[in-house]
User: Which sequence fits this backbone?
């Protein structure tokens, strides 16, 4: 699992010498790597070892594996929200910024088998629900700008963006490049002039 927007931390720095934020970051990075390698059933002690921490340190930051998975998902969702906000300022205009965002997010999720499973596992966690809401606000703002530009179909919503990303993730199971075709079909369906029900 890829953890975006995290600064590199030297692996040789002793756990005790790290700040609270650096410990949090190191644990998230280690958890992402362990879950990607071993699946979501990986034990918490394996994550502690990968981070160079004691198991007690892991549980002080994340009281349960569910909380740790939720933190990983929240990081990814917040990154998507930040990207959507940045896309609003794109000199290419809102529609092209939306298309670029969809392509980037879809490509990243294809290489991240753990994210979809983790999201399904912790979708009702309060922190995940809150992060989904925040991310969707940013995406809705981008959709509104693309709609005002005249490039986005009038009835498109943030749910449509989620559906497209879910469909591209599922299409990846059908063949190596099937997700690309699904993404292009989804983008075409969002464009102004696409048939509305």
Assistant:
């Amino acid at each position: 699992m890829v953890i975006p927007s995290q600064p590199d931390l030297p692996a040789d720095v002793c756990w005790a010498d790290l700040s609270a934020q650096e410990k949090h970051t190191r644990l998230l990075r280690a958890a992402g790597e362990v879950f990607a390698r071993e699946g979501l059933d990986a034990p918490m002690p394996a994550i502690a070892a990968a981070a160079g921490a004691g198991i007690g340190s892991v549980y002080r930051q994340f009281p349960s594996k569910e909380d740790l998975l939720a933190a990983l998902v929240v990081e990814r969702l917040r990154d998507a929200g930040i990207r959507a906000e940045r896309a609003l300022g794109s000199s290419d205009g809102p529609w092209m910024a939306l298309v670029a965002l969809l392509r980037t997010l879809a490509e990243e999720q294809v290489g991240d088998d753990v994210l979809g499973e983790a999201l399904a596992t912790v979708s009702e966690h309060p922190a995940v629900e809150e992060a989904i809401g925040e991310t969707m606000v940013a995406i809705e703002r981008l959709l509104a700008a693309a709609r005002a530009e005249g490039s986005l179909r009038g009835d498109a919503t943030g749910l449509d963006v989620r559906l497209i990303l879910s469909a591209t993730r599922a299409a990846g199971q059908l063949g190596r490049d099937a997700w690309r075709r699904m993404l292009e079909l989804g983008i075409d369906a969002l464009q102004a002039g696409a048939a509305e029900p």
Remarks:
- The chain is about 70% helix and 0% strand.
- Confidence is low (pLDDT under 50) at residues 1-9.
- The first helix runs from residue 20 to 38.
- Residues 59 and 181 are 42 Å apart (CA to CA).
